[in-house]
Each structure stands twice: as structure tokens, then as C-alpha cells.
Write a structure and sequence with these properties.
mainly alpha; 0% strand
């Protein structure tokens, strides 16, 4: 089977939708070896795949966000919604002196480009502010959002609290998350990691015990058999790839 640009784009889309990160990386390598990266469709599919698989770091590396943003500005090219998410997120990879630039860029979405920021944009900006330790500013921004904050926004703040061992704000973020997603084990994992990062191991153990009591000992995600079989059959045109049946969090 010949996997051309069109097929690569399609498979990358499937990988992003189903969360097949490792398989998507293999398609990325195939596209690189085949010289497909210069194709706009393939490049966008690669960025979207990494972004959908929650790997913004690799998405930003592919996008080379700030460099391309500078060229887009000079050429007068209007960025779209996805482009803004990647550009904002890229400021985690610069330095704290550029946070103001990031905030100004965020404001320019509405004032210059007439694009209403979505939850994804707020999540990205909270991630940047939180990464550089501006946790109070991040929390204040969430509380003043003109749209209803979703779990992803509070999760970004909670993760930043883990990085900086800020239990005070972290508890408030966790409270919002648990109210919105009481059956989402990732929230408990983040809270447990927050306590561990600050040396409060007994509190971390209590969270894990609570997870066990709620039946979160093994967190599994099943992929439909038919989709998985058809997908593996298609992928064999490139390389036989073993697909995991479950994803497990081991609390032992």
C-alpha cells in the first residue's frame, strides 16, 4: 500500500481523534522520510494530532510558533483560531519577560482580529501564566472570563499549582474541577501530585485511598473493536504496529 500525502493526512486525523499518540508519531516520521512536511495539509494534520493528543510541546516544535507568527504578521496573513492556541502556548517556551507580549496577543484576538477567545485560548493563557508563577493573575482571569470556564481551564491552573507547590490556589482549582468532573480520575491524580510536590505525602496517600474507594484503581479506556481492527489493517501498509487495548494507572 502506498501511503501518500492524502493518506498520511487522513491517518493523522484518525490518530488525533482516537488519541493514538505513538502511532501518530510514526506517521509523522513516515511523512518526514517521504518529504511530505512541506505539504500544508500534512503539516496542519501533524500539529492537530499532537494538540489533540495533549502534546502541545511537540505541536509547538512542529509549528515553530513564534518564528512563523512573526512572518505571518509581516505578510499580513490573518491567523485562525488554532493558530492562536499554538502561538499563545508557545510562550511557555520563551521567558517570563515575554508574558506581557503573550497577554497583549491574547487581547489582540478581539480588538484587532475580531476573534472571540474560546475556552482553548483561555486554557492556553492560564497555562502560560501558571507556568511562569503568575498563579494569582491566572486565577483572577478565570474568575473574570466572559464565558463559562470548563474543566480544562481549572486543570491548567491546578497543574501550574503543582509545579509551584501552591496548595492554597490548587485546592480552589481542585474544588471547581471535582464539582464539574466528579468521576474524572485525572483530577484526583493532579491533586495527589500537588501534595506530593509539596512534601505532604500523607495527604497524597489519602487522595489515592479515596480513588481506590471510588473504584478508580484501574483507569481503562477501551477502543471499539471494529475501528481498531480496520485501523491496524490500514497501518500495516506502513509498518505492523501493536495497538494497546487499555491504558492503566497503577497506584501500587
Amino acid at each position: 500500500m502506498v501511503v501518500d500525502k492524502v493518506a498520511s493526512t487522513a491517518v493523522l486525523g484518525v490518530c488525533g481523534t482516537l488519541g493514538f499518540h505513538e502511532t501518530g508519531k510514526q506517521i509523522h516520521c513516515h511523512a518526514l522520510k517521504s518529504g511530505f512536511l512541506s505539504d500544508l495539509g500534512v503539516g496542519n494534520a501533524i500539529m492537530t494530532m499532537y494538540s489533540n493528543c495533549s502534546n502541545m510541546d511537540d505541536a509547538i516544535k512542529i509549528f515553530n510558533a513564534l518564528s512563523i507568527w512573526s512572518k505571518m504578521e509581516k505578510a499580513g496573513i490573518k491567523p485562525d483560531i488554532v493558530t492562536f492556541v499554538l502561538i499563545i502556548s508557545a510562550y511557555r517556551h520563551t521567558n517570563s519577560n515575554l508574558v506581557d507580549h503573550c497577554q497583549n496577543l491574547f487581547l489582540s484576538m478581539k480588538t484587532i482580529y475580531h476573534i472571540d477567545p474560546t475556552v482553548e485560548h483561555y486554557t492556553s493563557l492560564v497555562g502560560v501564566l501558571g507556568y511562569w508563577g503568575l498563579l494569582d493573575e491566572a486565577e483572577e482571569m478565570i474568575n473574570k472570563m466572559p464565558i463559562q470556564p470548563e474543566a480544562s481551564v481549572w486543570r491548567a491552573l491546578l497543574d501550574a499549582c503543582r509545579i509551584h507547590s501552591n496548595k492554597k490556589i490548587g485546592k480552589r482549582a481542585a474544588k471547581h474541577l471535582l464539582a464539574m468532573k466528579p468521576q474524572d480520575p485525572s483530577t484526583y491524580i493532579l491533586v495527589s501530585n500537588l501534595y506530593s510536590a509539596s512534601g505532604r505525602w500523607h495527604c497524597s496517600d489519602m487522595i489515592r485511598e479515596e480513588m481506590r474507594a471510588k473504584g478508580f484503581r484501574n483507569v481503562q479506556a477501551e477502543v471499539g473493536s471494529f475501528m481498531k481492527i480496520r485501523f491496524i489493517h490500514f497501518m500495516q501498509g506502513i509498518n505492523p504496529i501493536p495497538m494497546p487495548k487499555t491504558y492503566t494507572v497503577d497506584w501500587s
